[in-house]
Amino acid sequence: MDSVKSQSYEVHINELAKAALNQHVANRTYSKIFLLVDENTKKYCLPVLKEIFDGPVDSILEIQSGEENKHIQTCLQIWEDLSNLDGDRKSLLINLGGGVLTDMGGFVASTFKRGIDFINIPTTLLAMVDASIGGKTGVDLGSLKNQIGVINQPQMVLIFPEFLKTLDPRQIKSGYAEMLKHGLIQDEVYWQDLIKKSNFTDASCIQRSIAIKNEVVLQDPTEQGLRKILNFGHTLGHAIESYCLENHDRKTLLHGEAIAIGMILEGYLSHELRGLSKLSLDEIKKSFLRFFDKVDFTDEDIDSILQLLKYDKKNSHGNVNFVLLQAIGEAVIDIEVPEELFQKAFAYYKE
Question: Which positions fall inside the 3-dehydroquinate synthase C-terminal domain (predicted)?
């Protein structure tokens, strides 16, 4: 299967990934090679990586998994570990994990000694098709998603679909939400194909999602315009995710679960403001609710969620800007939404 070429790195899959990793390390004179894992990837994925990677690993650094640990305190721990283990500017950090770990590992590498090389080896479907691609790195500020970070590209991203065998179905579905998003914003044929598939974890689907995101990022690496379309569903979705994260009496939602709700809500806004057909809107809602249980939100919940919109990273000059759909496969950016439509969007979701 062909690799996906970005501006300064490539995304390799399966055997090409194995060859690329070993060749890269053999051709570089890294002073130290560090491997970042969490307790899950250490147990389930590290043994597989040891069979793939021929090179030396000087030290394995371990952090706790989960969005609740994606904060600057964890970064401090990793920075201190790197420093205590004599890491320098010629070191390499290999990030073996899901989106939380690759986001944080990339940020740590980008800032340690003003920047060291890093390689992402995503182990969840969400990280394979989205989080590890495109160079966004960072951490949360309290419960507010990805408020601190930089855009910096890895040396390469390596995809081994066999890692998906270690995941429970809920984690797989979380990644599926981002794949569906890629179809909604750029490729109606891909969307139609995905909603009919029973197996969306095959390498060809993963490659197509990576290619869609990569095509967008190549045209707008620093998110000045087009790249914003990748945030469809994320304005309300991130607010919902943050709200559930900070309220311990509510079930914490995985990223994809929150974004699935966000895409239904923002689909409704698209229908009202950009002419997305009612047929397409209902197809979006029906498709997501086939895979994701509906979440009950009270009026008080909705008010609190809407308060969090002011922290969205796409905001400019005090305005909350949305990515909306004109049609499936056609996204538009920087759309302001009248406040009265938010309640109507939640009402549509609840129907």
Answer: 175-315
